[in-house]
Write a structure and sequence with these properties.
With about 450 residues, the chain is α/β, with parallel strands linked by helices. The protein is about 40% helix and about 20% strand. Strands 12-11-15-14-13 form a five-stranded antiparallel beta sheet. A four-stranded parallel beta sheet has the order 2-1-3-4. Helix 11 packs across helix 12. The C terminus is likely disordered.
């Protein structure tokens, strides 16, 4: 007759998962009966060995029921092997909050994480009465994710922890299995570890291939490319930057950016500034640096372009706008008339054209306001830039605002992927003509328009 093992856990979910583990390893040799504290328990439980999922569960059982067993064991728990790869992918030196519903079990989980080799990050134990943990953006929890602070950006649920090899060995010893059974049980336990190792080796190989591919791509571009993670550590430093800073990428990888780049203003721009681009003189080279942020990984990518490249690109962009019809066709010779009032208006507008002030053009519909706007543009310092005309009377307040100032991706329902550049940005170094702006009030949009420079209305 088979001997009996009684398993007592805290929750139903824990009971199911730990029972499956024990059944897979020992089910051929013993009978396993399982109970959970959050389910209905019998008044008496009997068996050859009782196994508790934690010390707190054992203490709770003393007051709730009479346990009649020859031997009692409190199991040691470790993380499920299928979650190890996900934990290893957390960036080095990251602060990681370990969230559990029991302080003692939280510390045990941290200890087991270190024991399995997850030691490249800084673990911080969760306390129920503590509401804020500075610098924490990742949390790890064994099924208690509802306890995680809401501001934590990324939560990894490692699920129910399994019994470790020491606990399985103690069970084997308690039931007195023979040497043959020993070998079979150990083979079953190790099989999962070996399968995990195969997956890790395969994943590591794929990551290396991807890393080499990315490096080969960024090393052939003419621009310098620098990537910094949320801990301000350098994750990418291509060959163009090696030449620019006279540094090796292997020497700066995983270093904090302020320890690599001595230019404090440059470090401040890359890590903290809200500006998208800025000019810098780096070791005698005039550079324009463009910055973007990858939200998913909280990574900042800075692209270093020579000033000549930036000017050339800007020129091509402006040329493309003019090619697509964003240009002024009319000049002052196209304004025909001899009336003194008309001639006086032309004279005043010529003087205004050479200034950088916004210009207000008033007149009834059909009197040639856009004709004057185009002539002013063609006689201004902005004549080589685009000319954009917008009929404000044909748009709602919301549409006008999004058209003029653009929007970020997913800022509202129906927003196009990647966001949209506003007309003010498109008209940079040129002129934007806001026709019929006085047809009705536009509230805060009108106030913003009055602050813009180089605007014709």
């Amino acid at each position: 007759m088979k001997k009996k093992l009684v398993l007592i856990t805290g929750s139903k979910q824990t009971r199911i998962i730990l029972h499956n583990q024990l059944k897979e390893l020992l089910g051929d040799y013993i009978f396993i009966e399982c109970f959970a504290v959050d389910e209905e328990l019998p008044k008496k439980i009997g068996g050859d060995v009782v196994l508790y999922s934690s010390e707190s569960i054992k203490n709770e059982m003393k007051d709730r029921l009479e346990v009649q067993c020859a031997h009692e064991i409190v199991g040691n728990r470790t993380i499920h092997h299928k979650h190890i790869n996900e934990l290893l992918q957390i960036p080095a030196h990251t602060k990681v909050l370990i969230v559990n519903d029991d302080d003692r079990e939280t510390l045990k989980l941290i200890e087991s994480l270190y024991q399995v080799g997850i030691n490249h990050v800084q673990f911080i134990p969760f306390k129920k009465k503590k509401t804020y943990y500075e610098g924490v953006e990742i949390a790890v929890s064994p099924g208690e994710v509802h306890l995680c602070p809401p501001y934590v950006k990324h939560v990894i649920d490692i699920g129910v922890r399994l019994f470790d090899m020491a606990t399985i060995f103690e069970l084997i010893k308690s039931f007195g299995f023979n040497q043959s059974n020993h070998s079979i049980i150990w083979d079953r336990y190790l099989r999962n570890i070996i399968e995990l190792q195969k997956k890790l080796i395969e994943a590591e190989g794929q990551m290396k291939e991807l890393h080499l591919h990315v490096r080969s791509v960024v090393n052939v571009v003419e621009d310098g490319i620098l990537a910094v993670d949320f801990n301000k550590r350098i994750t990418l430093f291509n060959k163009r930057l090696e030449s620019l800073f006279q540094l090796s990428s292997s020497d700066v990888a995983d270093c904090e950016i302020q320890h690599v780049i001595s230019n404090e203003a440059l470090v401040e721009f890359i890590t903290s500034s809200e500006e998208k681009s800025q000019y810098f003189n780096i070791n005698g080279y005039e550079m324009v640096i463009y910055k973007s942020i990858i939200q998913e990984s909280n990574t900042t990518v800075a692209t270093f372009k020579s000033v000549n490249q930036a000017v050339e690109i800007e020129g091509k962009a402006q040329s493309e706008l003019r090619k697509n019809g964003f240009s002024a066709k009319y000049d002052y010779q196209d304004i025909i008339g001899e009336h003194p009032a008309l001639l006086k208006t032309i004279e005043i507008s010529r003087k205004m054209a050479v200034t950088e002030y916004p210009i207000l053009i008033q007149g009834e519909t059909g009197t040639g306001k856009e004709l004057f706007a185009q002539a002013i543009h063609n006689h201004s310092t902005r004549k080589n830039g685009p000319f954009l005309a917008v009929n404000c009377s044909a748009m709602t307040d919301t549409l006008l605002e999004s058209e003029l100032f653009g929007y970020e991706e997913a800022s509202f329902t129906g927003a196009q992927k990647g966001g949209k550049k506003g007309l003010f940005e498109s008209a940079d170094k040129g002129t934007i003509f806001l026709d019929e702006i006085g047809v009705r009030p536009y509230g805060h949009i009108e106030n913003l328009l009055r602050q813009e420079m180089g605007v014709c209305a």
